[in-house]
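To whoever is on call:

I kicked off a structure prediction for a single chain this morning and the downstream step that reads the tokens threw a length-mismatch warning. I double-checked the sequence; it's 164 residues and nothing unusual in it as far as I can see. Pasting both halves so you can look.
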Amino acid sequence: MISKNMNRIFLIIGMVIAGAFAVSCDNDDDYNVVLPVYQDVVFTQGGTQVSSRAIMADQPVTVTLVQAKKGKGIYRYNYIWSSDAELQNFQTGQISSNYDTDPTNTFTATTPGNYTMTIKVRYDYSGNKAPVAPSVEIANGTVSYNAAGALYGEATIIKEFTIR
């Protein structure tokens, strides 16, 4: 037969264990992955931001994928830039980064016309939940997200632009 003191000891031990579980689960939100939210693709010429519909031919352009909200719990970003325009000095293919910064690329276009730029992003992450983000419209384009797997997500950014 168990004495009253032993019952109290078991009760206290049980309460301590239950409290430890409650505290350890309390900060699980710290390990939830949050994908970055992309706000726009911005074009700059001569240090001045220009409309995507008014990019001047034969002048260097810096293009930036602007984040409205930075990601969390992501340890690698892979960017693949492409365009249907013939662009000089444009870095295509995969560009990897371990930093949550606004990625940039540069180009010079010689042929006036209407074109499309596509930026595909893959995020490698570790966390409790696969993130889900809605597709959104940006000026002259779209951003779509996909929680493609348990350890990575994807985004596709499409932006129309005009060379004059």
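Update from on-call: the warning came from a stale cache, not from the record. Cleared it. Sanity check on the structure: The mean pLDDT is 84.
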